[in-house]
Every structure is written in structure tokens, then in C-alpha cells.
Amino acid sequence: MDSLTGSTQSFYDDADNRRKRTRLIVALVLVALVLVAAWYGFKQGMGDGAATAGDEAATTNAPSVTVVIPGRVSVEAAISANGTIAARREMPVGVAGEGGEVVRVLVEPGQWVGAGQTLAIIDRSVQTQQAAGLSASIRVAQADANLAQAELERAEALVGRGFISKADMDRKRATRDAANARVRVAQAQYQEAVARNGRLNIVAPAAGLVLTRQVEPGQIVGAGSGVLFRMAKGGEMEMLAQMAEADLQRVAAGTRATVTPVGTSLQIAGQVWQVSPVVNTDTRQGMVRIAIPYSSSLRPGGFADARLVAGTAEAPLLPESAVHSRADGNYVLIVGKDDKIEQRAIKVGTVSDSGVSIASGLTGNEKVVVLAGAFLNVGDKVKPVIQKASQ
């Protein structure tokens, strides 16, 4: 009986110990879970604090850059072209008469001459003698005509007395008329000789500027000698500008232009007076002729640049410092989302003293970096300082 009672008590003691161990394990697990949750919360808070501090530090250390919001302003729609200078009305001057030996050349290239002014003198010693002979033949013919007229008048006085027949009178009238005709022939031959001699000298067909001289004293010239002088009528010049097919549609007669000869800073005001009605099928370009006044800096055959103003257009206008170039074109840097640098490809329009107009690539509402663009990279964080846009 005592043995049974001891066994029962041992059973209850073991059960109680197991319950205590279970409660202890559960308590330890709960404590561990609480500690893990607390550690995770602490690490999360530390991470967020560090990120916030890092962002604040990055913003504080970001460089300040000057930006401009260009908007859209009215700018001149200009077209650039290049070409050569030429005389607007070039006059080639050669031998008009029979020619001969050149005795004197009276002008030099670059000299202004009047209409009909002698440029070169041709020897006329032989032609002068021929003209003198023809002049003498006029006097001989006139003497014969005078004699025939006198004989006719004497015959008319005798015809009433019956001494001269009507047939004789007819012959005398014919003789008189033939003599008068010979006078007119001699006069015509003499005038022809005078006219030929007058065409021996080489003269200016109109007032203008002598461009070239291709003759020297002692040279034998004739109808086959070609051009001896080239002149610009009135000294008027023009620029023959080659222009793309699309640009030709924007240009009309009367369009204003500024011409700059190569090697000079001279800007000569001109005006389009003719637009080519055809386009070269190989180059897809057409000719625009720009009339310009005479200047000593203009030399026919020389090269020049032209800027044509083909109306106005609305476009963003930037300072030149804001526009950058690379192998594939132009671009600008803009401050985009989160104040980070972005790169934007653009197409440049008109370049003037006011700035650079942007034909495409910008709407005008962007924050465009004006200065220090060379020291910035895409993705850099900056502090934009807005500058007032040029108007």
C-alpha cells in the first residue's frame, strides 16, 4: 500500500515538472520573438534616418547652376547660304570692226568708264588713206555731175530752135542722172569707210567698271580674238547663292539679305532679285541671285556668305553659352526631375546678337543650364538658380 502511494506521488511530480518546463520554453520563445522584433524595428529606424541624412547631405552639397526658362519669343527666320560674287550684268567687249594692230590701251581693271569711251586704239593708217581716196572720188563724181547738168541746160536752150532733137535731150538727161547717182555712190562708200574706221577702236558699250583686260599694245586683233575686256554694267554686283530646295520655297524676290565676303567682316545689305525656277537634279539646290551695291571689297569670282531674312517665327531663344556641340549635332543641358541634369538634343535656328533661336528640341518651358555646362554630367544633382530670360 505504501508502495502504491509512492508511485502515485512520483507520477504527479513528473507531470508538474513537465508543465513547468513547457511554460519556461514558451516564455523563452516569446522573449526571443520580442527581442527580434525590437532589433528589426531599431535597424529599420536607423536605416531610414541614415537615408534621410544622406539625402539632406547630398542636397546641401549640390552645386548651384544658373538656368533660364526661355519661353518662346518672336525671332527672325533666317536662312544661311554661300556662293560667289559676280557682276550683275557682265559685258564682254571685243573687236567690233575689222581689227588691226593695237596702238594704245587706255584703261586698266578697276577703272570706271563712260558709255562710248575708248578702251583701246587700233592702228588706222591704211584705212585713213582709203577714206581719203573715197573722199576724192566724191569730188570727181560731183565734177562729172556738174558738167552733165551744164550740158543739159545748154541743150534745153537750143532745143526750142530745133538744133537738138528730143533723143539727144533724153541722152543728156540720162547722163546727168547717172552722174548724180555716181556722186551718191561715192558718198556712200566714203561714209562706209568712215563708219568702219570709227569701229576700229574698242569702246565701252555702256558706263561701268572694267573688270579684266586681255589685250596689250602691239597685239594684232580681229573678229576671232575673243573677249578683250570684261565690264560690269553700272558697277552693279550680285551674289549667286546656292540654296537647298526646301529653303527656296521660303525665299521670294525682295527678300532682304546681308552679304559678307570671305576674309572680311563687312556686312553689305542686299536684296534678292531673282529666284531660280529650276533645281539642280544632282545637288538638289537652286540659285538665288542677290543684288548688292558696289564695294571695293567685292571681287567677282570671290566667295561670300549670305544671311537671308525670310519672315519671323516663335521659338525659344538661348544665350550662346547654353548651346553645346558634338559630332552628331547640338544639345543643351536641362535640370529635370529631382533637380538632376539631363541632356537634350536640339536643332539650332537663327544665330544673332540676341542669342541662338532653337528650331526644334525645346518647348521653352525647360530649365536650361546657361553656365558651367562643361563641368556637369548627366545625372548630377544641382541647385538651379533661375535667370531672367532674354526678350
UniProtKB/TrEMBL annotation:
This protein's GO CC annotations: efflux pump complex
Ranges in a coiled coil: 138-196
Transmembrane spans: 24-42
UniProt domain CusB-like beta-barrel: residue ranges: 241-310
Domain YbhG-like alpha-helical hairpin, first and last residues per copy: 125-202
Keywords: Coiled coil, Membrane, Transmembrane, Transmembrane helix
Keyword Transmembrane helix included in the entry's annotation: yes
Pfam family, one: Beta-barrel_RND_2
PANTHER family per record: HLYD FAMILY OF SECRETION PROTEINS (PTHR30469:SF15), MULTIDRUG RESISTANCE PROTEIN MDTA (PTHR30469)
Family: Belongs to the membrane fusion protein (MFP) (TC 8.A.1) family.
Protein name: Secretion protein HylD
Organism, scientific name: Sphingopyxis macrogoltabida
Lineage of the organism: Bacteria, Pseudomonadati, Pseudomonadota, Alphaproteobacteria, Sphingomonadales
